[in-house]
Design brief:
Helices cover about 85% and strands about 0% of the residues. The chain has about 60 residues and is an all-alpha fold. The radius of gyration is 26 Å and the shape is rod-shaped. The protein has one domain. The model has no long low-confidence stretch (mean pLDDT about 85).
Length: about 60
């Protein structure tokens, strides 16, 4: 590798750093999406319970 002037250690470190940053960003984005989905599900469940209890009172 000396013939082409590339130092493998520096290239590996650069690649690993870039890839790790990308992985962390992706993980954070997925975490936010999962959290939002869970909050939406909880909200919808509360809404369904409220609707069901209201309709039972009318009967």
């Amino acid at each position: 590798m000396d013939s082409i002037g590339t130092i493998i250690g520096e290239q590996c470190k650069s690649f690993a750093t870039t890839r790790d940053e990308w992985r962390l960003q992706r993980s954070a984005r997925r975490s936010l999406e999962a959290t939002k989905k869970a909050r939406t599900e909880v909200r919808m469940e509360k809404f369904r319970k409220k609707i069901n209890s209201t309709s039972k009172r009318k009967e």
